[in-house]
Amino acid sequence: MAGFVRKVLKSGLGIFTSRVLGMVRDVLVAGFYGVNAVTDAFFVAFAIPNLFRAFFAEGALSSVFVPVMSDKITRQGEREASRYLTSLILGVSLIIFLILVFVFIFPESVVSVFMPGYRNDPAILIPAANMLKVLMPYLFFISICALLSGYLNIKNSYYIPASSTALLNIAMIIGAWVGYKESGDIYFLCYGVLFGGLLQLAGVLIFAVIKGYRPVFSGGLDPEAKKTFHLVLPSLASVGINQLNFMMGRIIASYLAVGSITYLYYANRLFQFPLGMFAVAVGTVTLTEISVSNSKGEYEQRDMLINKAVNSIFAIMIPASAGLIILAYPIIDMIYGRMSFGRSDVEATAFALQMYSVGLLFYSLISVFSRIYYSDSDVKTPLRGAFISFILNVALCFAFMKPLGHAGIALASSVSALFNGVYLYANIKKYSYPIRRDINFILKVAASSAAMTIVVYYAGTYGLNVIANIVLGCFVYFGIMYMFRVNLLRVIR
Q: Does the keyword Transmembrane helix belong to this entry (predicted)?
């Protein structure tokens, strides 16, 4: 189990490296360009290749091929595993080529689907379409990078794949700065995305070769590759629907006040920070580890890994969610509140962050539960849960946005995540969380989080600096957990 902790820490550290640079990027973009219709257009254009990226980089194809790849390395050797991976890369490249052709022919139509509220505004629609044409090739770079990252995970390399997005963020930072110097031309930010994606792919490819990957073109396509694409179709829909929950929010937000899309983007970026740094790291390692356990028939080890993953999520995400809700305004103000990002922008973004944070725990559990299904090659159950939650999300968006505006869209996403998390847990076969055994642990986490929340709230009302308040909150939470004689490192070891 110590190995599991090390792998989570490596993956988490890699994601942390990337997310810190991503935050620097967002701070500069917010300060340089502010909140307006042009930033709404950029974030929608940037979200479109990222939506497709989610199919390959954040669960779907990676979750299906990692168990197969692990089994091939164990049973057939390195060459057959490389042939299988090469076949997948060729297949994905063809699919992406067809997507790119369609987008380049009909860019305005594609943008109109994702920004219907601006459909009759050519001053925004045309620039967004032009930005999309620059941004879409990024999809190819990041999708192939995702396949190679899955290979590296199997080879026990977690930091490099998780931190590779740092190269993208550095390129975007440079692009944002150049664009600002060139009279606020946001197209330079788009060029930064394109060049950063190329750097990211190059870096991951180099390390994959170092770890043993060699492209194999002889012997034809691997027969398992075709089977993988058949399996991935429902998984594509499952992951795609989860991402569409966020995208649908932006689509609906295009009918609200100018800047609503940008508010949701910045709030979601901060919401994704703890989610990506810890929950995604735990989910990524869990998928690899339980896939290996399944291949070896070590089912008790599999259940123990799942228990550790769930308890880790509880221990970190419950206090993180409470902290984000209480400190949303000072955090947003500290990070974004400067230059072109005004006071009203801070308030609007903080409100959205609070509503997203309500669902942090549930999104984290989904990250773990969905990978349990993928490790067993069951992609239909997550698809059903994701589809129902998507329908619920759309209905709640319309119900909540009238009283809460753009923040209602964020709250709808959180409530739908709650449903999806419960649905996935209820349908897991041959596993049940040991609630009777671990109820004391959960109560201690809840009590420590509640005490932390109270202390942080009152410290904030007395004007304590937000960074000092975060440190105080961590001290209170971990201190009380220590008083309860809970060793958090032992919990996940």
A: yes
